[in-house]
Design goal:
This protein is of the alpha/beta class. It is built from 42 helices and twelve strands. It has a five-stranded parallel β-sheet with strand order 2-8-9-1-10, sandwiched between helices. It has a five-stranded parallel β-sheet with strand order 3-7-6-4-5. Strands 11-12 form a two-stranded antiparallel ribbon. Helix 9 links the parallel strand 6 and strand 7. Helix 32 packs parallel to helix 34. It starts with 27 loop residues before the first helix and ends with a helix.
């Protein structure tokens, strides 16, 4: 049902809409165009401008801003709007005139006439000849003040609208009114007038009800009575008595500034004559003339006198001051309102008058019971008016990402984090109302992460549902199918899943595009806004929705490609929604493996979390628990790769506890080993070794060679960092004995770390052997980041042995591999090694290029404190080459402090060594000697022979200089 303003009340009775309390963001183009129209209207070149935009896009806010500007420019403004549940002719204009001419529904006809005449005499003496028709237009003889009629379907919108205007709503109803309807309405109070439908309401109860209603209207300011009691009343009292009761309600409402809404129910058909008085739509504006015609205005000349009444007062207003007429929500305007708007647009062309209208394109394509969207009232009116070029349209678009960030900043009081901005922009698609509700309705506005969960409230939900229900069966089926698919859907897929011909599907899709449900993109058909998809999806019955998901999953299964993780994930999701949890579990695990292989960790995490959800719905068997433990540990692995070490520990501890309670030895061994891996990155040496030894004991007991090997790899890393090279080599060799070791990047990193040990011991040939082996294996497995790290390490050794050309060649090759494959610790280590080599070569430009690729730069803090300490040392060397010694010393001291805390001897000794070199370069020979002595002592402790020799050589040079200075 389309219509206009709700009730015949003065604007003084209604709380005025206030300006939203968030700053006005952007809309520079739209405001500029509207300013031009305001300026033109000031000089007698008026017209009409229409704002087109979806619900929540900010049309009303833009109108509010323009009204403020217009008032500053000396404009007078008058405003109204159309509402979906009223079909009263030209009612927005009548309400405008009532407000301006001081006509109030609570007054008698004589009182209103007196107030009306005073206003005319004071402000519009030129309208004296039109007093009679104008007053009858606003206050017809038989008008029921403060009352109107609404259907049961429109009841939720009526009550919500009255509540938004400040009315306390009281519903009088029988027990036959559905609880679902009452729940949607949520009136402030409810009076039940019937407990036994067969008895109805007795005359005595009717009198008591009348007294109660009288008390409500006389004690509650802005009271709105919703009368749904006609059916129970008629069962016992008869139509005459009920009609008297209705009049009592109306008089109470009119006399006390209230509203009474009558809702005809089953059994009240013979009151239709009485109820007709409550709807102006069923009365002509002039005796004997039907104003509801949908003919074009040129064919409505007998009605022209009626249409002249409204523009006359507007013209009088515009002669004193420029006039701004605002009419919102035109998509719900009925035919006579839009015909008058057409006439008024003609009038405004050469006057100081600007008409500003707004409408939703998604709401202008539907009229009750009409599937022909080409002839809806607003669309037809715009088609006629456009022939005369009487209006301009300004499309109010969604915010882009940067403007969304500005709005979020104004609400949060700070610049939003990028992750939060991306999440909000993705969910709201740049719709300002959704952005505001996404942030403002939460009690966690100060949260600095993207974990804010806020439910959306969409005021247009009912409109969406109504428009869906009006679709042809095939169009609705397609719409529901696309909403269930949840992504861009190609035409061939729709044809396949519906079994209908291409022509029928194209017709259905065309109708939905016209109604602004769907739009076509390069990828297929998608919804205009995700909120529309959610609304459509929510009204599909659960059983039907589950079957549709299974049908889609079956379609995807037929063209399944398990190497495509996105396709596999979609199948898993549809099986899950179709309650086929075993199939969903298997596909989720497959897709998560593929995502992890491609380092797409967010997608992998989502799939693993779905897999855990599936376990909750499957039988409690040992096999399921074994797989579940592995899923939990895989989630921990993802957290660890991201550097979220404590989240990883929580997952591993969870897997350990489950494994222990279910006696899953292999799971327990793996959990202990992963806990050790995580604690190693936290440099908790004692706890790390303890967990590795527990894992080693359990894995040997279960005879799992792979788990034994991985535990030896972890122990080798512990001993290597602690400087116990013999034990480290022994553990690494035991790891390499595992026949499955070469299947992962772990194997390549183990080879590379063995090469590091030999390099530090000064056994360069051995180091080169293992580096070459790690490079060859990395190339075979196409693991670019691991290969790049080995190339950098090999370059370092080649420099030590004097082969500078080869050293530079391998460094450049490593950089070419790594610059497009950043994102984890391995790539960061390779990049740091490259920067170090460029500093050694004295190529500061290439060193700077490498530093620019590190997230946060060489000074940025990450999750690995050892890497941060090494970055600080490299940054100090780079600063020293730039001769910025003061900051260089600070960075070197920071590196020393962290490494002393972590107890990593080789890296600490190397930092002492480089710190001594920089101090020596500054001729701070005493400090240089102290640092070199410290380096020598640590290198000697761990037997790093090559570096002991380098340090001793530099120490002799420093000592010689010191002796020369003393002489």
């Amino acid at each position: 049902m389309c219509g206009n303003l709700t009730v015949s009340m003065s604007q003084e009775q209604l709380p005025h809409r206030t300006k939203e309390n968030h700053p006005f963001i952007n809309r520079v183009r739209e405001k500029g165009l509207l300013f031009e129209h305001l300026n033109s209207a000031t000089f007698g070149k008026g017209g009409m401008v229409l704002l087109e935009g979806e619900a929540g896009i900010g049309k009303t806010r833009l109108v509010t801003e323009i009204i403020e500007v217009a008032l500053e420019k000396g404009f007078h403004h008058i405003a109204g709007r159309c509402l979906e549940y009223r079909k009263t002719p030209i009612f927005p204009f009548i309400e405008m005139l009532k407000e301006h001419l001081r006509v109030q529904p609570g007054l008698s006809r004589k009182e209103n006439m007196d107030a009306f005449l005073r206003t005319i005499n004071e402000q519009h003496p030129a309208l004296q000849d039109m007093i009679g028709p104008l007053f009858d237009l606003m206050v017809p003889m038989d008008e029921v003040h403060g009352s109107f009629k609404a259907s049961i379907e429109d009841l939720p919108r009526v009550i919500n609208d009255l509540k938004s205007r400040g009315f306390r709503t009281i519903m009088v109803s029988g027990t036959d009114l559905g609880e679902e309807i009452i729940g949607n309405c949520e009136p402030a109070d409810r009076i039940v007038v019937d407990t036994d439908e067969s008895k109805g309401v007795s005359p005595r109860r009717l009198e008591r009800l009348a007294m109660r209603i009288r008390d409500l209207f006389t004690t509650v300011r802005h009271c709105a009575l919703i009368d749904c009691s006609l059916g129970p009343l008629l069962l016992h009292n008869g139509p005459d008595k009920v009609e008297r009761m209705l009049k009592v309600m109306d008089q109470l409402a009119a006399g006390n500034g209230g509203v009474c809404v009558h809702v005809p129910m089953v059994g009240s058909d013979h009151l239709s004559g009485t109820l007709a008085a409550y709807d102006l739509y069923e009365r002509p504006l002039e005796d004997g003339k039907d104003t509801t015609s949908d003919k074009p205005m040129d064919e409505q000349k007998p009605l022209l006198s009626t249409y002249e009444l409204v523009p006359s007062i507007f013209l009088e207003l515009s002669k004193k001051d420029p006039l701004l007429i605002v009419l919102e929500d035109l998509q719900w305007g009925e035919k006579t309102t839009l015909n008058l708007l057409h006439y008024l647009a003609r009038t405004a062309r050469n006057e100081r008058m600007l008409i500003l209208g707004s409408y939703r394109p998604e709401g202008m394509d539907l009229e009750e019971g009409d599937h022909d969207t080409s002839r809806t009232p607003l669309r037809e009116a715009l088609r006629r008016i456009s022939r005369e070029r009487l209006f301009d349209i300004i499309q109010v678009a969604r915010f882009d990402r940067s403007t969304t960030g500005l709005l979020m900043e104004s609400i949060l009081g700070r610049t939003p984090e990028q992750s939060l901005l991306e999440k909000v922009f993705k969910e709201t698609e740049g719709n300002p109302r959704y952005i505001i509700e996404r942030l403002r309705t939460s009690s966690t506005n100060n949260t600095r992460t993207a974990e804010v969960q806020v439910p959306f409230h969409d005021a247009a939900e009912d409109m969406f549902i109504k428009r869906v229900n009006a679709l042809e069966p095939l169009a609705r089926e397609v719409l529901e199918l696309v909403s269930v698919i949840g992504r861009a859907t190609r035409l061939e897929d729709i044809i396949s899943m519906t079994g209908r011909g291409e022509g029928d599907i194209l017709d259905a899709v065309d109708s939905m595009e016209q109604m602004r449900f769907l739009r076509e993109t390069e990828d297929g058909f998608v919804f205009e806004h995700n909120k529309v998809r959610e609304s459509v999806h929510s009204i599909i019955p659960p059983e039907k929705r589950a079957l549709m998901h299974l049908r889609i999953a079956d379609r995807l299964e037929k063209k399944k490609d398990l190497n495509d993780p996105d396709a596999t994930a979609r199948m898993a999701e549809h099986y899950y929604m179709g309650e086929q949890y075993r199939s969903s579990l298997e596909l989720s695990l497959t897709s998560s493996e593929r995502y992890i292989e491609r380092s797409l960790l967010d997608q992998a995490q989502k799939e693993l979390e779905r897999a855990l959800d599936c376990f909750e719905r499957l039988d409690d068997t040992r096999d399921n628990w074994v797989v579940r433990i592995n899923v939990i540990m895989s989630l921990g692995d993802i957290h660890q790769r991201r550097g979220e070490l404590f989240k990883a520990l929580n997952r591993y501890n969870e897997a350990r506890d489950i494994s222990e309670s279910k006696s899953v030895t292999l799971g327990l061994s793996s959990a202990y080993r992963r806990i050790g891996d995580t604690l190693l990155r936290l440099f908790d040496w004692d706890q790390t070794a303890d967990n590795y030894l527990r894992s080693l004991h359990l894995s040997k007991k279960s005879e799992d060679k792979n788990e034994v090997a991985l535990t030896f790899k972890g122990l080798g890393r512990v001993y290597y960092l602690k400087g116990d090279y013999n034990r480290a080599l022994d553990c690494y060799m035991r790891y390499l004995e595992n026949p499955n070791g070469g299947k992962s990047s772990t194997y390549i990193l183990a080879l590379q770390e063995i090469g590091d040990i030999y390099n530090e011991l000064g056994e360069f040939n051995q180091a080169l052997t293992y580096y070459k082996l790690s490079i060859r294996t990395g190339e075979e497995k196409q693991l670019s980041k691991e290969t790049a790290l080995s190339l950098v390490r090999m370059s370092n050794v080649l420099m030590r042995v004097g082969d500078l050309d080869e050293a530079r060649r391998f460094s450049d090759l490593a950089f070419s591999l790594i610059r497009d494959n950043l994102g984890d610790d391995v790539s960061e280590k390779a990049l740091i090694g490259y920067i170090e080599m460029m500093i050694e070569f004295g190529d500061l430009e290439c060193a700077e290029d490498g530093a620019s690729l590190i997230p946060g730069g060489l000074q940025g803090a990450g999750s690995d404190r050892l890497i941060d300490a090494v970055k600080a040392r490299i940054n100090a060397l780079l600063l020293a080459r730039r001769r910025d010694f003061e900051v260089s010393h600070t960075e070197m001291e920071r590196s020393m402090m962290v490494l002393q805390e972590l107890q990593v001897p080789f890296q600490l000794a190397l930092t002492y060594f480089h710190g001594g070199l920089i101090r020596f370069q500054c001729m701070e020979v005493e400090k240089a000697k102290d640092l070199l002595i410290k380096a020598s002592e640590v290198f000697k402790t761990i037997k790093a022979i090559h570096y002991m020799s380098r340090t001793a050589s530099k120490l002799r040079e420093v000592t010689f200089i010191m002796e020369g200075m003393r002489r």
